[in-house]
Known about the structure:
Blueprint: H1 2-6, E1 9-17, E2 22-27, E3 30-40, E4 46-54, E5 68-82, E6 85-100, H2 103-109, E7 114-130, E8 136-146, E9 150-159, H3 160-166, E10 174-189, E11 195-211
Parallel strand pairs: 4-6, 9-11
Antiparallel strand pairs: 1-3, 1-5, 1-7, 2-3, 3-4, 5-6, 7-8, 7-10, 8-9, 10-11
Amino acid sequence: MANKIIDTNTVKVIGKVISLIEFSHEMYGEGFYKFDLEVPRLSDTVDVLPVTISERLIINMELCLGTYVEIKGQLRSYNRYINNSSRLILTVFARDIQILEEEENINELLRTPNKIYLDGYICKSPIYRTTPFGREIADLLIAVNRSYNKSDYIPCIAWGRNARFCEKLLVGDHIKLWGRIQSREYQKRYDDEKIETKIAYEVSISKLEYIENDNNRFGKKD
């Protein structure tokens, strides 16, 4: 049963360590550390993704700046309370890490450096919109179950035909999706006119599948 739950959320990313490893937190006597990973896109830009990893996985491992690694794990979410408000935080939770050393092998692996698969449920009504240039977009929030009665809440974004399909989804609908994790900068304006640049993380959907079970009813919203 545990393996089935784990299989609902799988991530593989390959990239370059671009920050020093820092202590994050301790849970049940086990220490966890964090660092940023620069993952290239096929469009010659990059995503900078936060990684959380157990101390058990990096014993005697030299994760220096510029080191290329392959990480397999899950995309996890948790709530952080800042100034009496809750903020959803996402991180790549590493279950396995390998240092990549041969340049030829690295170049081959970087052709597909960022993959994620999620099996979960719509937990907020999708928001469909078009950009000023006419591109269709739908924003989703997916709840993915994991062990010990916990769930991860993952923001996702669909484009084009997938966006039109997602517009019809209802809260509680069961879907599977494939894509990549992306980082995106945005600006937040405060009451005192101060503008702060922040980074959002989301899953960019390349393929999705509606699961006709769990008593779901697929149809247009009223």
